[in-house]
Amino acid sequence: MTTNLTHDQIQVRLDNAHRKDPNIRISYSIQSTIDFLDVTVNSEHGHLKTSIFHKSAAEPYVLPYTSDHPRHVFRNIPYAALLRAARICSNVEDFDMERIRIDLSLLLNEYPPSFISKHFHRFFKINQAMSVFERLDSQVYYQLHQQLLHKPTRREQQLQHATEDIDVLPEVLQRKTPWDSNVMYAKYNFESGPRLAFQRDFRTWWKKHFAYKGSNVEHVQLKFAVKTNRTLEDMFVHKKLPLPMLKRKPTNVLQQATNVHIHL
């Protein structure tokens, strides 16, 4: 919370709120700079400035940028990182420092420099803020920050649509789109290595043997549905086993204990 009250006045009010209910304990910190979640809020000459908070106890540059996903997924990672920085950082200099951090993190995770540069430019072109990237235009960045800060996320948009139209049928009850015979979906599991060229090779094979000129399926459009590999999170047990099963001892252990007892 922010306030224009004096230090003593706000401290008295917080102490009164602390004593109001014995079941609720309030701990507070009064200072010009505060860290909350991943945001640092700083008060400078009566103005609030926000930036990204980096926890000093965490190892730097350790980010989940390495994964076994299709190549088109990786282009969203630099964009999402810059989007988060632009939403949080209220100052263009802080945003530029965060951009450098993101650049270093991607390089340390073996992202090609050309790939990083390409998708950094993509972020600023989509949001019409190339002057921020080229010369740190503070006025254009302020407009970018305000625009992205108040832009609803995908989850917020879905929630808003759901609350606006309460009569819409659930997804399981909605009428499915009829099957389109002009589109064929090829499903396959993605893997780093030889399968990186699978889409290109399959398209060549498809056009050569099936979709050649004059064939019955020449008009069919080919699309790929890529499945990612299972992660450790998918393999972990998500439900606790029943208590009798947890207490049950293996049969071979009981048999060994019996044999030892008879031997003695």
From TrEMBL:
Name recorded for this polypeptide: Helix-turn-helix domain-containing protein
Positions of the Helix-turn-helix domain: 61-121
Lineage top rank: taxon: Eukaryota
Taxonomic lineage from the root: Eukaryota, Metazoa, Spiralia, Gnathifera, Rotifera
One Pfam family, short name: HTH_animal
PANTHER family attached to this UniProt entry: REVERSE TRANSCRIPTASE, REVERSE TRANSCRIPTASE DOMAIN-CONTAINING PROTEIN
